[in-house]
Amino acid sequence: MPPTVFQQVLLIGKYQAPQAQKLLAEIAARLSRAGVEVWVGELTAQHTELPYPVLRSSELAERTAQGGWVAVVLGGDGTMLGAARRLAPLNVPLVGINAGRLGFMTDIADSDWESAIDGLLAGDFEREERAMLTGAVERAGETIFSAIAVNDVVVNRNGASGLVELKVEVDGRFMYVQRADGLIVATPTGSTAYALSAYGPILHPSVDGVVLVPIAPHTLSNRPIVLPGGADIVIEVVTLRDVSVNFDMQSYAELIGGDRIRIRQAPYRCVFLHPPGWSYFSTLRKKLHWHEIPDES
C-alpha cells in the first residue's frame, strides 16, 4: 500500500448498530496495518473493547493541533452530526461509513469500506467543505446558552402548547412576526433534513445561504425564504407559551418570552472526504427515491 496522507485516525462508531463492533475492529486493524496510528473516540471506547488508545474529549484540541488527522465515522447521520460539531472547529476532516438508515452524510456503504479506506490513505478522495451555524440564546442582555449546528437550529413549541409567535430580524432589519408551530433555520446540508419535511427547498451544499422554513404557519402565505450565508438572524420569542430551541436535535435549551436567539454562519466549515466520483445528485436520487435515467434499450 502506498504511503498514507494521514498519520492519525480517530475512529468513532455507532456501537449500538448490529455488527458495528466487528466492523469497527476490522476498520481499525486495516488502518493499523497501513502504519496509521489509530485512536478511538471516548464514547465509542466506553462501549467497545478495541485495543487502541482512547482520545478523550478534553484532549481533542491539543492532540489534533498539529494536523495530519482524519476521523472515520461508522454510523448514521446522527452519529456524523455529533462528530462534526466536535471536530469541525478543530479542522479535522470526516469520512462517513453508513451503518444507519438514511445516510445523507455517511455516504460510503458498509460493504465498500475497504476500498474507501485504502483510497483515503492513498490520498484518493474528494474534499468538500460545508457551512455550519453558531447560535446563542440571549436573556436580559446576557448569553445563557450557545451551541453549533451542522443541519439546523429549530425554535418550536413544546408539547401540547398552541402556536408560538416569533419576531425575526435579519441584519438588524425587521422581517416578520411568525405565528406557527416553530421556525427552522437550516444550512444547505440541513435543507434535506427537518426543513425538507416542512416543505423547504433543497439547497446544494455549495450554495452560500441559509433557509428559514416555518413549521405549519398560521398564514399559508408565509413561505420558506433563502437568505445570504452571512446574514445575522435574530429570533425573539414573543409568546409566553412553552418554547424551546435545539441544535441538530442534539443540543437543547428551554426559552421564555423575550429571549433572543442570535444565529450566524460559523467561522469554520465542516470538511467531508468522499470517494472519487462522489456525486451529491446521486445521493439525492438514492435517498429521496428520485427516478433514475430511463432505460432506452
Give an account of the 3D structure.
- The chain has helices spanning 20-33, 42-46, 60-64, 77-87, 113-121, 194-197, 280-288, and strands spanning 8-13, 37-41, 54-55, 69-75, 94-98, 108-109, 126-130, 133-139, 142-149, 152-157, 164-170, 173-180, 182-186, 209-215, 225-228, 233-237, 243-247, 251-255, 260-265, 270-274.
- The protein has 297 residues and is an alpha+beta fold.
- It folds into 2 domains: 8-131 and 269-288, Rossmann fold (3-Layer(aba) Sandwich); 133-265, Tumour Suppressor Smad4, CATH 2.60.200.
- The longest helix has 14 residues, at 20-33.
- The relative contact order is 0.15.
- The model has no long low-confidence stretch (mean pLDDT 92).
User: What multimeric state do the chains show?
Assistant: single chain
Uncertain segments are none
So, CATH architecture of the largest domain?
3-Layer(aba) Sandwich
Shape: globular
Element-level helix/strand string: EHEHEHEHEEHEEEEEEEHEEEEEEEH
Structural class: alpha+beta
Task: Indicate the topology.
Layout (H helix, E strand, L loop, with lengths): L7 E6 L6 H14 L3 E5 H5 L7 E2 L4 H5 L4 E7 L1 H11 L6 E5 L9 E2 L3 H9 L4 E5 L2 E7 L2 E8 L2 E6 L6 E7 L2 E8 L1 E5 L7 H4 L11 E7 L9 E4 L4 E5 L5 E5 L3 E5 L4 E6 L4 E5 L5 H9 L9
Parallel strand pairs: 1-2, 1-4, 2-3, 4-5, 5-6
Antiparallel strand pairs: 7-20, 8-9, 8-19, 10-13, 10-17, 11-12, 11-16, 13-14, 14-15, 16-19, 17-18
